[in-house]
Amino acid sequence: MEQRYATAPDQVPGMDTEELRRRYLVPGLFVDDEIRTVYTHHDRVVLGGVSPVSAPLTLPGYPEIRSEQFFDHREAGVVNVGGPGTITVDGTAHRLAHGACLYVGRGAADVVLSSDDAAGDEGPARFYLFSAPAHTAYPTTLVEPGQGTVRELGDQLTSNRRTLNQYIHSSGVQSCQVVMGVTTLHPGSMWNTMPAHTHDRRTECYLYFDLPDEARVVHLLGEPTETRHMVVANREAIISPSWSVHSGVGTSAYSFVWAMAGENQAFDDMDGFDVATMR
């Protein structure tokens, strides 16, 4: 488990591109037949990529979180960003199509992830995991694509028409602190979350997916008056501290998993910034 230590906003002006990417970009999460995890000290979030290709993979415990089983004192949302697959939690199988989300509650002991034998055009399953500490147990719950709370946002005239699907949130699948969903941009739209915002009470992470191999997203981060950018490829994740804006524009339409953990679960608890005030 790779560890990333927390950063402060006054560190950003002195960072070059390489350091920005080292601290906030998470590439290489999806490697065939491997489980890769990153622990960020921002709200003690764990990001993971599970890629079962030739055989199922079992989620282990890690010494970095001092647990025999991964879910001894954690919860997680898992979104499948690849072909169809199955997550078996303590003997109960949950089949996840592309874009589906499974919430796994504290106390789950045996978690096995596998790809379907016939993966189809989308290839093997690629499971993206977002985990945070949990104080109590909520039931493991599957949400199919499009079955969450759907919100239509933006406008084609401003190139940010998008469908936001809330999966794990206060009015949907219950959790201790994880809030999670998937946003898909409409064809011809490229911007997400603009005007940009921060939410000083929660860390948010993005995973960009459904982005063509030759396309990229230019992701904005940093304080609103001291922004920086990173160029992000398909299935790469971003760690966005509570003080940082998180917005991006792509060279093509794309989807992204957004997930948060921190002080509360209020989706609209954010501080917006007019574009004219950003630097």
TrEMBL record:
Main enzyme class: isomerase
Residues that coordinate or bind Zn(2+): H197, H199, E204, H246
Catalytic activity: 5-dehydro-4-deoxy-D-glucuronate = 3-deoxy-D-glycero-2,5-hexodiulosonate
EC number, as in UniProt: 5.3.1.17
Protein keywords: Isomerase, Metal-binding, Zinc
Pfam family, one: KduI
Cytoplasm among keywords: no
Annotated pathway: Glycan metabolism; pectin degradation; 2-dehydro-3-deoxy-D-gluconate from pectin: step 4/5
Cofactor entry: Zn(2+)
Cofactor: binding details: Binds 1 zinc ion per subunit.
Described function: Catalyzes the isomerization of 5-dehydro-4-deoxy-D-glucuronate to 3-deoxy-D-glycero-2,5-hexodiulosonate.
Matching PANTHER family: 4-DEOXY-L-THREO-5-HEXOSULOSE-URONATE KETOL-ISOMERASE
Entry's family note: Belongs to the KduI family.
Name used for this protein in its record: 4-deoxy-L-threo-5-hexosulose-uronate ketol-isomerase
Species the sequence originates in: Isoptericola cucumis
